[in-house]
TrEMBL record:
Pfam family, one: LGT
Keyword Phosphoprotein in record: no
Stretches that traverse the bilayer: 12-35, 47-66, 86-103, 110-132, 144-163, 170-188
One GO CC annotation: plasma membrane
GO MF annotation terms: phosphatidylglycerol-prolipoprotein diacylglyceryl transferase activity
Alphabetized InterPro entries for the sequence: Lgt
Superkingdom of the source species: Bacteria
Keyword tags: Cell membrane, Membrane, Transferase, Transmembrane, Transmembrane helix
GO BP terms in the entry: lipoprotein biosynthetic process
Family: Belongs to the Lgt family.
Species assigned in the record: Senegalia massiliensis
Name of this chain's protein: Prolipoprotein diacylglyceryl transferase
Amino acid sequence: MKPIFLSLGPVNITWFLLFTVVLTIIGYIILKVIAKNNKYRKVMEDYYLLELILGFVGARIVYVIFHLDIYAERLLDAIRPNHYNLNLFGGVLIAVIVLFILTKRKGEPFLLILNYLLVPFYFSMAIGVWAFEFEGILSNSNPIETLVYSIMFFIILVSHLLLFEKHKKVGLITLSLTMIFYYGLEILL
């Protein structure tokens, strides 16, 4: 497949951008539905967009740090991110650290808010991994590998949904397992 979903004159909409916009909207709706009776619903909605932005920034920063040899002589390239050079671990790490700091500073329940925010994250990842398949950029990959990642995120989503209201630390556990499985599968596949 081609990386471009739609061209409108000089503007190209990639599959990744399409998936990102659609899944951001769906994720926000999911958050509103699952948190509708929670007294922190509005706070969670505010954090949702902030965490999304911080996730992308963190993903880029960590990618650049891990690839300093590439950017040492071309510093301007480091601030020109695209979805081909992001680091999932970096995005998750920065988003979680900032969420922890902000919730503690405001006296809000970090684990509760994290648990709710992880639901749209896992949902978006389960579907979002297909953007790379549609773009055809996973040349060393195949649809079976993408399916494995998608199923992994879906299983973690279902597990998290079943447990997150009963066990407040489940978010940290599922997130840790997600990173282990994601990077473990990357090594194995």
